[in-house]
Design goal:
heterodimer, A: 484 residues, alpha+beta, Beta-Lactamase, Heat Shock Protein 90, 5-stranded antiparallel sheet, 12 helices, 59% helix, B: alpha/beta, D-Maltodextrin-Binding Protein, domain 2, 7-stranded mixed sheet, 41% helix
Chain lengths: 484, 297
């Protein structure tokens, strides 16, 4: 199992040649086995025919001597009949009576005349088919000497078949060497072929990995680039895809900017309204001062009114500046950002009769070092979305708290719950392209979260509604430093 | 004794040096017949071992005899001494190189023509041989052996050992586990060297000459016992042929062989020094053994 996994982990460039070599090994093993088997049969047939002709000659020559049990004549005949012009020679020939008493042998010292062949010695001799012992390279054969239908004796012959075995070994080593050479050759060819075949794929893969990492580059498809027309078409398609993606991203960025400007416009009108509202009172106060400035009571009351009115205008202007002037965003998130958000949303909330509760549970401040600008932008977008999703008179909340080593910012609404599309947008796989239709605000939130490395979570609010949680983990801490 | 020569020839053959026949070459002269060339035929008996193993040797001997006798020489071979002796006695051979034992057996029917001299003497010995490494001292140590004799009509290859056993009151078939007749002194040496037989009776002249020609084979055996000196296998003719012109020519050729270059070549191969006029007394030793075994064999 682990071997298979290991094999799969190997690059394709090695896997294919390795598979080829294994296949070649199997094929050559089968071929070698077949060749050796066939060679063995041929050799045995050859040996059998040599043995038969030798034994035919010996039998014909010694039969009369065997009848007379003339040891000398048999010995002399065996000596004379010993083949000399053949590679396969009998190393030992023993002639016995039917009861296995030795009459004569080519080596009388090993097989003394008148001694009896013991069972151990005769066991090695098959009666019909010659048998080659691979350990000592000797071949054994026994034959009866029949005269007038009567067995008058037996011949036991041992042939030296080492030459045949050596031949077999030679064939084996030749086969192994040849097959090994072919395997190596095929593996090399395999490696080169696969390298050529998958080279373009690797190029494509590398560029795709780079693209996934946000560092997409175009593939060179100039005529000098190696590869065939097919791979070139593939590269061109990739480049086209890359161009299209780039265009879409630029479009998305532009749309996001436009959306930002749109929300700014909306807020600007609110802000103008907020400024305009006290402005009438302030002008009245100025008139009152002009007319009744001498009256200390009227003067104080008017100045007080002027001061509060101008403070209110000042707050609105500061909040707007803090939100939309990037240069000032590079400060860490603080409690004022939450108050500002509430204040910026208050006209919208008021118009819908909604209430925003602020729960700041981080004490003096979040103190997380997170960049204030993006988080404010995200909070405002979420609050605008929550307000729009909730019915009139609903109670919304904005909460900041510490959770283990993170800081969380939650926005709760009383809406019917986030639609599946919105859920995918917030917590699904990263999607850089702008969604179709609505949900631009949430898409901006997701973009901000991805940019600063914050997490987005969804929860159901007790009593109805949804909670969107921005989780500012340790990864987002210190972003401010980079932003600065 | 022709057996002895056969053995030597056989040994010589392998080296292509040992040309002319030694001891028991039966010579036969039949004056009434003529060859295709018009020359009278001289039938000369030899053994199959001799004939089969070295045609060149036979040719050399034949060339010498034909040149020396002026006859067309026909070399006749048989497997056993008995066959050659029978042919000789029956007059089918003009002469033959026979063994001293058959000569004594058929003394009344045969006449000596010549006797070879080995080391200048017309005598030789019979050897009792065993395997080289064997621990034995007398014939009594050879009990239960497979024993190789040369020929039942051989003096050195049978009669001497048989007489020795008789002297020790031993019967071959009881004393030995088995006896073999190899019909050749070289064969006796082969049988003992290969351990097919554990002991053997062999012509001492053959053993000594073969020791020089085939030391690898002969050195695998050793001499356990040497007999006393006995008459060398002679060349004999039948009584009927004795004194004829053909026999006299043959006798002259043999006796003058040492003086003839071709004859010298033959003698060198046989390691003989020449041929001498035979004397009956040279075979007294064999005759004595035959007399002692009369009724036993």
């Amino acid at each position: 199992m682990s071997g298979r996994i290991g094999f799969r982990r190997l690059p394709l460039i090695w896997r294919v040649p390795l598979a080829v070599s294994v296949l070649m090994f199997l094929v050559s093993a089968v071929i070698t086995e077949r060749v050796l088997d066939r060679l063995g049969s041929i050799q045995e047939t050859y040996l059998q025919s040599i043995a038969n002709s030798y034994l035919d000659g010996v039998t014909a020559s010694i039969s009369p001597s065997v009848l007379r049990e003339d040891s000398w004549e048999i010995f002399d005949a065996l000596e004379r009949l010993r083949p000399v012009n053949t590679a396969i020679v009998p190393v030992e020939t023993i002639v016995t009576t039917p009861s296995r008493v030795i009459l004569a042998a080519t080596d009388p010292l090993a097989y003394p005349s008148l001694e009896k062949m013991d069972d151990l010695q005769t066991e090695r001799f098959p009666t019909t088919q010659i048998r080659i012992e691979s350990d000592d390279g000797l071949a054994y054969l026994e034959r009866d000497i029949v005269y007038q239908n009567t067995t008058i004796g037996r011949i036991y012959t041992i042939f030296d078949a080492r030459l045949l075995l050596a031949e077999r070994r030679d064939v084996l080593s030749t086969l192994i060497l040849t097959n090994a050479a072919f395997t190596v050759l095929l593996v090399l060819i395999g490696i080169i072929t696969v390298r050529r075949m998958i080279g373009p794929m690797q190029t494509l893969e590398n560029h795709m990995i780079e693209a996934a990492e946000g560092k997409a580059t175009r593939i060179d498809v100039s005529p000098q680039t190696p590869g065939n027309a097919e791979s070139r078409r593939l590269f061109m398609a990739f480049n086209t895809l890359l161009d299209a993606d780039e265009e879409r991203r630029e479009l998305s960025t532009r749309l996001a900017e436009e959306e930002k400007l749109a929300s700014l416009g909306r807020l600007s009108s609110v802000m103008a309204h907020e400024i305009n509202n006290p402005l009438g009172g302030l002008l009245n106060a100025v008139d009152t001062l002009k007319k009744h400035g001498a009256n200390a009571g009227v003067r104080d009351a008017s100045l007080d009114l002027l001061q509060r009115g101008l403070q209110g205008i000042g707050d609105v202007v500061r909040a707007a500046l803090a939100t939309y002037r990037p240069a000032r965003q590079s400060r860490p998130l603080s409690l004022s950002d939450f108050h500002d958000a509430k204040m910026l949303l208050s006209p919208e909330l008021r118009s819908r009769g909604q209430v925003l509760d602020l729960f700041l549970e981080t004490g003096e401040g979040p103190a997380c070092g997170c960049p204030a600008g993006p988080v404010r932008q995200a909070m405002i977008n979420l609050l605008l979305n929550a307000s729009a999703a909730s019915p009139e008179g609903a109670d919304l909340f904005l909460r900041s708290a510490r959770l283990e080593d993170s800081v969380i910012v939650e926005v709760g609404d009383r809406g019917p719950g986030l639609p599946a599309r919105a859920v995918r947008l917030l917590t699904g796989p990263a999607k850089r392209n702008l969604p179709d239709g609505k949900g631009l605000g949430l898409w901006v939130v997701r973009q901000i979260a991805d940019e600063i490395g914050a997490g987005l979570e969804l929860a159901t609010r007790p009593g109805g509604g949804s909670i969107v949680r921005i989780k500012l983990g340790p990864g987002t801490f210190g972003e401010i430093g980079h932003a600065a | 004794m022709s057996e002895g020569h056969r053995s030597i020839f056989a040994a010589a053959l392998s080296r292509r040096r040992f040309i002319a026949g030694g001891a028991c070459i039966p010579l036969a002269l039949t004056s009434s017949e003529a060859s295709e060339t018009g020359l009278p035929i001289l039938r000369f008996g030899l053994t199959p071992v001799f004939l089969n193993n070295d045609i060149q040797l036979l040719d050399t001997l034949k060339v010498f005899l034909e040149a020396a006798t002026g006859h067309s020489v026909e070399l006749v071979t048989r497997r056993t001494y008995q066959e050659v002796t029978s042919l000789l006695v029956s007059g089918q051979l003009d002469a033959a190189w026979i063994c001293g034992y058959p000569y004594i057996q058929y003394r009344d029917d045969l006449e000596l023509v010549a006797i070879p001299a080995w080391n200048g003497k017309p005598y030789y010995q019979s050897y009792l041989i065993v395997a080289a490494g064997r621990d034995a001292e007398t014939i009594m140590d050879l009990r239960d052996d497979i024993h190789a004799f040369s020929d039942p009509d051989s003096n050195s290859g049978f009669l001497v050992t048989r007489t020795l056993m008789f002297e020790h009151s031993l019967v071959p078939d009881d004393f030995f586990r088995k006896t073999l007749f190899t019909y050749g002194h070289r064969n006796v040496i082969r049988a003992v060297a290969s351990n097919l037989a554990q002991s053997g009776s062999v012509d001492g002249y053959v053993w000594e000459v073969m020791l020089e020609l085939e030391p690898e084979l002969v050195s695998q055996t050793r001499v356990l016992r040497r007999s006393k000196w006995l008459g060398f296998p002679p060349i004999a003719t039948s009584r009927a042929m004795a004194g004829t012109a053909k026999t006299r020519v043959l006798q002259k050729a043999l006796l003058e062989m040492a003086a003839n270059p071709q004859g010298r070549e033959v003698l060198d191969l046989l390691r003989l020094t020449g041929f001498e006029m035979p004397r009956e007394a040279e075979f007294d030793g064999i005759a004595d053994m035959v007399a002692r075994l009369r009724g036993v064999l």
